Amino acid sequence: MKIDRHLETALKNFATNFRANREKAFSGFDFEKLREQLAESKDRALARNEELLDQLLSNAEKHGTKILRAKDSAEANRMVLEIMERHGAKKLVKSKSMVSEETRLNHFLEEHGIEARETDLGEWIVQLRGERPTHMVLPAIHLTRNDVAKIFSEKLGRPIPGEIPAMVQVAREELRKEIFGVKVGLTGANALIADTGSMMMVTNEGNGRLCSTVPPVHIVLASIEKVVPSINDALLMLRLLPKNATGQIITTYVSFISGPHKDSQYLILLDNHRSELLKDPVFKDVLRCIKCSACLNVCPVYLLLGGAEYSHIYMGGIGTLLTAWIHGLKESKDLASLCLGCHRCEEICAAKIPIADLVISLRDRLNRELGRPIAKRIIFDGVFSRPELHEKGFKIARSARILIKGNEEFARKIPAPFQKYDRFRALPAPAKKPFSEQFAAHFGRGIIDGAKGRVKIYAGCLVENFYPGIGIAAAEVLEKMGYGVGLVKGGCCGFPAANSGYFDAAKKSYNALLENLSAGNTVLTLCPTCATMLTQLGPDLFPSHKAKGLGKRVIPFSRFLFENEAVKMGNCLKKYHEGMKVTYHESCHHKHLLKASDASRGLLKIALGTEIIEMPDADSCCGFAGTFSLDHPELSEALLAEKISAIKASDAETVALDCPGCLLQIRGGLRKQGGAVRVLHVAELLAEILA
Amino acid sequence: MKVPDSQELLEQFVSRAVSLGAAVEKVPDLKAAASFISDFCNQNKINKIIASPGAQALLGKDISFCNPSAVKDWDSAQAGVVLADYGIAETGTLVHLLNSDSEKLAGILPRVCLAVVESKKIVAAPEAIADVISGHLSRAGKPGPQVAFVSGPSRTADIECQLSLGVHGPANLIILIVDGAQQ
Known about the structure:
The complex is a heterodimer of chains A (691) and B (183). Chain A is α/β, with parallel strands linked by helices and 691 residues long. Chain A has three domains: 1-39 and 281-371, no CATH class; 40-275, NagB/RpiA/CoA transferase-like (Rossmann fold), CATH 3.40.50; 435-689, no CATH class.
C-alpha cells in the first residue's frame, strides 16, 4: 500500500470542508429521518426489482427508447460497440458513468478502434494522463494545477498556463469541439423511473445535459438496481444525494429524460451479478447505495490511500462489498482487510447500509470460500475459541516474561523479521499476574454487596493479560462509589475471531461467555470492543435467547458512572486537579457504536472540575484496530503518527481514553517518541483523583 | 408546522439562488422582463441569442436569434433566454419542462443565461410539482420530453477543489422574477 503525501493532504482538506458544508446543507433537515425514508424506499424498490424493470421497459419503449439487457460487462461493452457500428460512429463522448468504469468500457472500445472521450473535467484530466480516478466525485483530486497545466500543454500542443479559471475555459472550448463533433453520447443514470419510463441524472458541470442532447444518439448505461417506482422516490434521493456527496443543497443540474431527443436512445441495463446479490439475505442492503461517496470522505484508510489504491474499481468499504459481487470474491480479498471497522461510514451512509458489519461478514465468506490463512486459523480456530488453551498460552508467556520484557511494562525489541510491528510503537509485555488473580488477591473471593448492590466487571483480554491495573482501578472506583464488585469469569468475547471472519470460532467464544453472563447483575465493560460484541455484533451474528436484551445490562464503565454516580463523584474528589491538562481520545467503537464518548467527556469534566482540552479530530482512529495493525503496520503507523501530533498539538499532559486497544497503540507510540505525556484509561484517571 | 406564504417562498428562493451564484432581478411584469433583457443585451454588446419559443415570442424581433437546428450556428449565440415553468424555494431551483431543441439548449449552451420565472410559480419543494413533472415526462412525442432543474451557474471544483464557473454551461445565470407586487 502506497501513501502519497500530497494526495493525503488534498483528501484531508477536502474532507474537512466537506464535513462543514454537509452540516450546513442538512441544517433544517432531519438526516436520520431522511435516510430512514430513503432506505425504506430503496428496499421497497429492490423487493420489486424485476417487476419495476418490466414497467420501465414498457414505458421507455413507448417513448421510443430501445432497451438492451446485459448480463455482464462483456455483453454491455459489446452492445455499446454494436450501437457505434450501426451508426457508423468512431468516437463517443461520455458524461461521468461509474458503470462504464465497472465494465472498463473505454479500454474495450479503444481495443476496437473507438475513442471514448470523457467530458467531466476531472475525468477528462485523469483520462489524458492515462490514470484512474482517485475519488468518485473528485476524480482528479490527487493533482495540482501545475500537473493539469502540464498535461493540457502536452496534449493540446500549446503552452497552457497553470491558472485555474483559464484552464477551465480551455476545457470548455476543447470539450465543446468534441461534443459537437460526434454522433453518440453516453451517460450514466442516478435513477430510472419506472412509471414514466425516464432516467434521472445529476451533474454540476452541465456535461450530462450536453452529452444526452447534442449528439443524435444517446446511450444510457445503468445498472438494474437504479430503478425506482416513481418521481417521488427519485426526488427523495435527490434531497439526500448532493448534500451527502459534496455538501451542496442540490447539484447545479438535474435532468429527467424520456426517450430520444434526436435519432435514437438506447438504455443498456447491466446486471453483473446484481440479481444474485438481490437474493442474498445478508448482503442485499449493498444495493441501496446511491454512490454519494460520503462514506469515503470519513474513512480513515481511504483518506490515507485514496481511491486508486483502495479499490478494484469501486472504492473503499462499500467498494469492497460491490467488488465481491460484481468483480468476484477473489478481487475483494485484499480490499477486505483494509477496513478498520471504525464504523464512521455507517453513521453517514445516506441509505443506512451497515458497511463495516458487512465487510466483517464478507471476511467470513472469503475464509469459507477461498480458504483461511494458516496463522490466523491456528490463532482463532485453535486457540481463541478454547478458553483453557488461550489461558495456557498467556501462562507460558508470563513465565517467559523475563525474556520478553524490556522494563516493567514494555517488551524488548522484537526480532528483525517482525520489526515492522514495533518500529513505531513499543509493544507491551504480558503482566506479571493476570487481572483475575490480582483482583482475587486484592478484593478477596466472593462478592460482598455494597450499599448500592453489586456490579460485575467484564475486563476483556487486554486488561486481563496486559493491563490489570485498569481493572483494579475500575474496581477501586466502584467500591468507593458504594458497590460490591465481582468479576465475570470467562474468556474472550469472540470479537477478534469474528472481525477476522472466523465466525465458527467467534460463536464458540461468544456463547461460552454468555453462559457466565446469565445471572441478573449489571456488567460493566472496560473495553468498548468487548461491549459492542456483547451487545450489538454478537446478537446480530449469533442470535440466541441469552444474547437478547444484553444491551440493557452490559454497560460501558464510563457511561455507568456518568449516568449513576455523577453527583457522588463530584463530592469525593481527593483534590481538584486544577490545572491538570487532560485531553480525551475518542475510541471508534466507544463513539460510533456505543455512542458513549459524550458520557466520558461529562464524567471527566466532573472528575477534573474543569473542561478537558480538545485535541484536533479527537475521533479519528489511532490505527490499532486489532488485527488491522498486524495486517497493515504501515497504515497503522501513519494513523498513529497523526494521532500523536494531534495529542501534541493539544498541549495536554494526559490522554484519557476508554479502550485498552487504543491505550496499547498510543502509549506504545508515545513511548517510542519519548516525552512525558501519560496515557490513561478513564478508570485509571478516576482512581487517581478520587479520595 | 406553519405553511410558508408566497412572500416567504419568494425570499427563500432568492436567497438560495443567490447563494448558488445566480444573480436575481425582480420585475413587475413580462414586458419589463423583455425590456430588461434587451437593455442587458445592448449594454453587453450581445447581438445574437438562442431562445426558447416562449422567450422568442416575448422578445419580439429586436434581437437576432440563432437557428438551434443548425449546429454551426450554435456557437454564435452569446446568450440564452428561457422561460422557466416553476421555481423551487427549498433549493433556489428553476424548473424547465422541455421539448424542442431550442428549449433544451438555450439554457445550457451560451456563457450567459437569462431565465424568467413568475413569482406565483415558486413552490416550496419539488414534491409540490411531482405530478406536473411526471405528467410531462409521460407525454409521447419526438423530441422526447425532458425536465431540467437548474440551480445556479455551471460549476466545477475538479482542479484543486477550487470553485470555477462556466465549465460546460453558463458562467452567468441571471434570474428575472416576474412579481406583480413590484408594481
